[in-house]
Write a structure and sequence with these properties.
Blueprint: H1 2-30, H2 46-66, H3 70-76, H4 85-103, E1 110-113, H5 116-140, H6 142-145, H7 148-155, H8 177-187, E2 191-193, H9 194-221, H10 225-231
Antiparallel strand pairs: 1-2
Helix pairs in contact: 1-4, 1-7, 2-4, 2-9, 5-8, 8-9
The structure holds S-adenosylmethionine (SAM).
Family: Belongs to the nurim family.
Transmembrane segments: 12-34, 46-66, 86-104, 116-140, 185-213
Main location: membrane
Length: 255
């Protein structure tokens, strides 16, 4: 009973940490209100700042993709109750992000800048990106992704039926709409600075690698994934095929 309560408290605390990290990330990337931000003037050596930023991105990439692999999960659950595995993944993902937010070194330098209607459009895309990210988590299974479903079922003494493979809404147009949301957030910068460009390029490279690993696991776990992959594009929706022209007979009209 004590273990159930402890695991539940841990999962709830982990979810609260995720919410706080998510809100901070909006300010950090968008440059609103948070004490540390992606963009800003550079302090100190350029080489040291770039090395620190690349190192922080690498720490997140290794943690986030490494811990998502089934082999790592099997190893972790030798020490952590199975119900707390996903919550642990989320807590450590938040820790890697918070480390990045705390130690990130802005680089100065403007790559592009927008104003007027273009700036409004870029902010609209940035906001849409965050909404897509949040929305798609609910389409898959929000509370399962962040480990809350697992700890609640464990606390109630219920078995855990693993999350199903689903293809609702945007999953019919692309296989990775959540990553489309992230890419939109990272590239929709009204003022693109050198650090923001490094961050956007690094996270894009990471997403492209991560989704290959994720698809390998999805194919192994869900037999229907292979057919889904053949039918639905990865990130860019297919334009609808042009409808065939209907042949019409020309008729001579005499005046
Ligand atoms: C951060 S989510 C990203 C989901 C997806 N790659 C996307 O961009 O929308 C990663 C988790 O979602 C799961 N997942 C990916 N596609 C899924 C689908 N169509 N149905 C259910 N779970 C999915 C993966 O197994 C993984 O645990």
């Amino acid at each position: 009973m004590l273990l159930r309560v402890l695991v539940l408290a841990y999962g709830v605390a982990g979810y609260a940490l995720f919410l706080a990290t998510f809100v901070y990330a909006i300010g950090f990337v968008g440059g609103f209100l948070t004490p540390t931000r992606l963009d800003g003037p550079r302090e100190g050596s350029l080489l040291a700042a770039v090395a620190i930023d690349v190192g922080l991105l690498a720490v997140f990439a290794v943690q986030h993709s490494g811990m998502a692999r089934p082999a790592f999960k099997r190893w972790l659950t030798r020490y952590v109750p199975e119900a707390a595995e996903r919550a642990t993944y989320c807590v450590l993902s938040c820790a890697a992000l918070l480390l990045m937010f705390a130690l990130w070194r802005p680089l100065g330098g403007v790559v592009w800048d927008t104003d007027g209607a273009a700036r409004v459009a870029v902010y609209a895309a940035f906001s849409a990106g965050w909404l897509i990210v949040l929305w798609t988590t609910f389409l898959i299974d929000h509370f399962d992704l962040f480990g809350l479903r697992q700890v609640v079922l464990f606390a109630r003494g219920r078995p855990y039926p693993p999350a199903r493979f689903v293809t609702p809404g945007p999953y019919r147009w692309v296989r990775h709409p959540l990553y489309v949301g992230w890419l939109t957030v990272f590239w929709a910068a009204p003022t693109m600075t050198a650090a923001h460009l490094l961050f956007a390029a690094g996270t894009t490279a990471y997403i492209l690698i991560a989704l290959v690993l994720e698809e390998r696991d999805l194919t192994a776990a869900h037999p229907e994934y292979e057919a889904y992959r053949a039918r639905v594009p990865m990130l860019v929706p297919r334009l609808r095929r042009a409808r065939p022209l209907i042949e019409t007979r020309r008729t001579e009209v005499t005046p």
